[in-house]
Design a protein that fits this description.
Elements (H helix, E strand, L loop, with lengths): L1 H14 L16 H8 L7 H8 L31 H9 L3 E3 L2 H12 L11 H10 L14 E3 L10 E5 L5 E12 L2 H9 L7 H6 L5 E9 L15 H11 L4 E6 L5 H14 L2 E6 L11 H15 L5 E3 L11 H13 L4 E4 L20 H13 L2 E4 L3 E4 L4 E4 L14 H9 L11 H10 L8 E6 L6 H14 L4 E5 H4 L11 H20 L3 E5 L5 H11 L4 E6 L3 H7 L4 H6 L21 E3 L6 H14 L5 H4 L3
Parallel strand pairs: 1-3, 6-7, 6-9, 7-8, 9-10, 13-15, 13-16, 14-15, 16-17
Antiparallel strand pairs: 2-5, 3-4, 4-5, 11-12
Helix pairs in contact: 1-2, 11-15, 12-13, 16-22, 18-19
The structure holds adenosine-5'-diphosphate (2 copies).
The site of one adenosine-5'-diphosphate (ADP) has 17 residues, from α16.
């Protein structure tokens, strides 16, 4: 009671506002301020004022940390072995049979090890699994909405009471598991109960078809966490995040889960959320496994950093990365996200429409109702200790230059918004996202990784007989492209054979090796946004198609220089046809070796009726048409 009264007293002092310190110590109170102090959700901003308030009472503020909500289940699981046991266990593990973990299981293991899934301390055994699948609860009764299992194929090494070394794809031993349970699981049942569907458009349901038919479970000793070389300062375990949040000094922590770049509306929403509960923000993007087609996490994290550093009050935000392998289980996943965030110290979670949605099913309809996730978390909110802050739709009022809740906008007011599809169009067209929609720093990072088409790479692959006119035309085209501001590398067969492919002859194997080498270099150039012009006889269709796949078919333009053999022979610019006819050069393409004409080349041209300049301009026009060269500049001449 006395503690509560003290709390009220200090709260009252705080509200009184800076300048007046209305403190009169109630009779009989001694040093109670210190205790109360620890309980208060104090922001750094209040610190000087609080100090001033309590000084007249003769109290001293020694410690200003604020206890966060306890982890789910009371304490954080930590499966990592003490450092002094590392060498011994590593040596022991090296002699054990191995189990290769999938990327998903590596993510799961990392979060199990650090207590993000507390109170769960292992891949689920049969009893936990069954109850989680059917009732969203572990065998002991606490909530856990998503099965977290280690599926394996039957193998001699998987035996009860034996140990196995859990390795990642690089062969590193991450943990030792003592196998205590091996049980079968039923795909249809898990799919229906957990995901509510057997539709293969659901990414997890599709993935589950490739999982082993047995689940294994048992005591885990984790030797090392998976190593991450990127953004190390942001990769916080639950305990590290808690320490940092306690330092911030807010008892209320609002977690924001995301797998997308944040725009102004998100920023406004998170700021309003922390204001509404007088708390701090845990900006907690998922960087484990998200969905194919999501913006890669390197790009996303750069945008989050830029935002956190420039647009949030540093005393009210913690940016940390979550190596979670998402399940896209909609409502159940949202409950899981809440539970995980509680372990990181958050007692609020922002949940929007379609939280953790897997997209559309094979009938083109959403798998879950738009508000199902919000509702399910709300149902369990009290038990989880995590309150839901609904993600309200915010719209921009251009006239007033601010964001407001969509529901509060008068019907006649002009609003602005941009859809996800339109965002992609902006980026592909190389247009900057408007400042009212995305902070310029974020727009710039997104633009860098989504260059407009006229700055994307492409491979122009000339094929045709020797002397057909590949090099001559390619040289003219190179100059034209340079003139139009593109970066170009010319890989000419004759030249490449003097260095990269030096020593190779003209057998089929050697020719293929030559072409694949050129293809490899071209693919690298294209990946980095350059134009690779390749001019090689490349007589075999299959090899040209291999190169097309190496480069990426949408980045590959096959150009057939269709000059008949007689014409090439008549030109005989290098004097080789004559030698080949005399038999002095063996395996000469067109004479004593095959040339397979392309079936559907993107471009074919004629060197009899058209000059090299005409043909080069013809190709340039094609590239302009495809957006690969800027139209305005290309037509300046
Ligand atoms: P490749 O690279 O296909 O082996 P080159 O470009 O080295 O062929 O040689 C083509 C030869 O044909 C050159 O000597 C060039 O001057 C001549 N030639 C004549 N007309 C044309 C044309 N319209 N396009 C390209 N080359 C032509
Ligand atoms: P490929 O694509 O078959 O590896 P390249 O374009 O790399 O061919 O090299 C072909 C060039 O090498 C020809 O333009 C010609 O100058 C020269 N050459 C020498 N011997 C032969 C041969 N047997 N067949 C074709 N070209 C040859």
């Amino acid at each position: 009671m006395r503690l509560l009264a003290a709390l009220e007293f200090l709260r009252h002092s705080l509200r009184a506002g800076a300048g007046e310190v209305p403190v009169s110590k109630p009779a009989g109170w001694k040093n109670i301020g210190l205790v109360a102090f620890d309980l208060l959700p104090l922001a750094r901003d209040y610190r000087p004022f609080v100090l001033a308030s309590i000084q007249p009472l003769g109290l001293e503020a020694v410690k200003m940390t604020v206890p966060l909500i306890a982890p789910y289940g009371g304490s954080l699981v930590d499966l990592r072995i003490p450092i002094e046991r590392f060498e011994d266990l590593k040596a022991h593990a090296g002699n054990l049979p191995s189990l290769l973990l999938s990327e998903r299981s590596v993510c799961d293991l990392e979060l199990l090890a650090t207590g993000a899934f507390s109170p769960l301390d292992r891949f689920m055994g049969k009893e936990d699994y069954r109850r989680v699948r059917d009732e969203m609860r572990l065998a002991r009764g606490c909530l856990f909405p998503v099965p977290l299992t280690l599926p394996v194929d039957p193998a001699p090494a998987i035996k009860l009471d034996r140990q196995v070394a859990l390795r990642n794809a690089k062969g590193e031993i991450l943990a030792v598991m003592t196998v205590q349970e091996i049980y079968e699981w039923d795909l249809a049942e898990e799919a229906l109960r957990v995901f509510g569907t057997q539709d293969l458009r659901h990414p997890l349901v599709a993935e589950m078809h490739g999982w082993g038919r047995l689940n294994v479970s048992g005591y885990l000793q984790v030797l090392q966490l998976p190593r991450h070389h990127d953004f190390q300062e942001l990769r916080l375990t639950p305990i590290q995040a808690r320490v940092r949040l306690e330092e911030l000094g807010w008892q209320n922590v609002v977690a924001f889960q995301t797998r997308n770049p944040l725009h102004r509306a998100h920023e406004e929403l998170t700021k309003q959320a922390i204001e509404s509960v007088a708390g701090a923000l845990l900006l907690h993007p998922v960087v484990g496994m998200t969905k194919l087609g999501d913006v890669d996490h390197y790009t996303r994290v750069r945008t989050y950093k830029a935002l956190a550093e420039r647009y949030y009050n540093s005393g009210r935000i913690l940016l940390a990365l979550l190596p979670l392998a998402m399940r896209f289980a909609g409502p159940r996943e949202a409950v899981w996200h809440a539970l995980i965030r509680r372990n990181y110290g958050a007692n609020h979670l922002i949940v929007g429409r379609d939280h953790a949605s897997p997209g559309l099913n094979s009938n083109g309809r959403p798998f879950y109702g738009p508000l199902d996730a919000q509702r399910l978390v709300e149902t369990h909110s009290e038990e989880l200790g995590v309150a839901v802050l609904p993600f309200r739709e915010l719209v921009y009022l251009p006239g007033e230059e601010r964001y407001v809740e969509a529901s509060s906008v008068p019907p006649q007011a002009q609003t602005a918004s941009i859809s996800g599809t339109r965002v992609r169009e902006y980026l592909n067209e190389g247009k900057s996202l408007p400042v009212w929609f995305t902070r310029p720093e974020v727009a710039e990072i997104l633009a860098e990784t989504h260059p407009p088409r006229h700055r994307q790479g492409v491979c122009l692959w000339f094929t045709g007989l020797s002397g057909a006119g590949k090099s001559t035309t390619a040289e003219v085209l190179t100059i034209l492209l340079l003139e139009h501001g593109r970066q170009v590398t010319l890989l000419d067969g004759d030249v490449v054979r003097t260095h990269l492919s030096k020593g190779l002859g003209f057998s089929r194997d050697d020719r293929d090796t030559n072409i694949r080498r050129i293809g490899f270099v071209a693919a690298e150039i294209v990946r980095h946004g350059g134009i690779a012009i390749c001019a090689a006889v490349s007589p075999y269709r299959a090899t040209r198609n291999d190169v097309r796949n190496m480069v990426g078919t949408d980045r590959f333009v096959e150009i057939f220089v269709d000059t008949p053999l007689e014409v090439c022979e008549e030109r005989d610019a290098k004097g080789m046809y004559a030698k080949a006819r005399r038999g002095e050069i063996k395996e000469f393409t067109g004479v004593s070796d095959p040339y397979e004409t392309p079936l559907n080349p993107e471009i074919t041209f004629d060197t009899i009726r058209h000059t090299p300049q005409e043909n080069a301009h013809f190709i340039l026009d094609y590239l302009v048409e495809k957006g690969l060269v800027k139209r305005s500049e290309a037509h300046l001449d």
